[in-house]
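Backbone geometry:
***
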Amino acid sequence: MNYSDNYYTRTKSYNLDSSKLNESIQCDVCIVGAGLTGISTAYYLSELDPSLKIVVLEKNKIGWGASGRNGGQLLHGYSSDTFNGQKNISHEEEKILWNFSVDAVKEVKRNIKKHNIDCDLIEGFLLTAASDRQEKSLLKYQKELEKKYNYKNSEFLNKGNLDKYFRSPFYQSAVYDSECSQIHPLNYCLGLTKEALKNKNLSIYEDVEVSSYTSDKNVKITTSKNIIITANNLILSCNAYIENLSKVLRPKIMPVKTYVTALEALPDETLKIFFEKPIAISDMFFVLNYFRLNSHNNLIFGGGVSYSNVDPIDIEKSLKNIIKKVMPGLEKYNSISTWSGHVAITQNRLPHIGRIDSNIIFAQGYSGHGLALTTLVGKTLAQAIHGESSNFDLFSKITHSKFPGGGILDTPLLVLAMSYYKLRDKLGLY
């Protein structure tokens, strides 16, 4: 399956050749899924032990899923700002997990600079409030970060101070963070893949669908074409695309579709009405809007979610209606690309990382914060395979529940819940 047509595939800087899987093979580690989790794991495993024979299997193309079509925002933290209900997690461990997310952003930047990856890295992020209620929540969130985690790299901006970064009739205040950033996600994924492939013991096979696996002393992975890969260890990094491959993992996540449009390069004089410089921005709505101005003057704007497979009749029009509220006038410019993609959410909005068997580990459910987290999670999975498992063990302590509905009613129940939260957003109750 080819890449979906979107802004990132049209502007990718790397064309990589993958191998063809024509016969059964043996390896030390088999990774299923060549998104950022799988590629990062392969990259760090190669660093830890270049002699390991590593095989990565991808049903579609490298970075085909969320890794190559997300909003491009590189953010610390998690989709949930609380670890309440996690009885196994102490306050000190909570701090370690928070700092992990901060380090995750730094790790991506280190890789970009170390390998000179062409992915348009731009630092600076605004979390915006559109009402007094949201501003109160925003201030509370900022103070909690400082009090609980001693995080001091954020600055509250009232309307007057916000204007030095971004001007909008829709938002009244924001918190600015200089560490959080934006990148071209597909180029980062492909650039890191290019570096990983310098290890001659690493093979990546595209267009290979895994149909099943069995575990005993070794793991046997069977493809849809009945080719068998025998591995000492298996890593499942399929995220929203796990489908029927694992009855253990699929009930713990819900694939959620979100939508993005990219506008044509905008005139400097028009952008100056709203932006002082390229920056990434998200807001405080439950069904949030997220957007960024890149270095090429493209506005990449995301918003809206769907728990079903039913898309809005006109996705571009729906997104431009929001753009009109936030940046009046920009909705008149042409969209050069509009697309959708699935992210995987968990019930508690915290990543789901752990072990199925002694030789099978997994990571999934980043809940919208995967662009930053996946790189360092990949390093964590690689370390776990290598016998260094402190971070892995800590993430494994986070408890995760199945979504209600048992696979039949889970989607209808979530569609109903989403309708409720959309109504709250419209009424200004969030």
Notes: The chain has two domains: 1-120+183-252+349-399, 122-181+254-345+405-430.
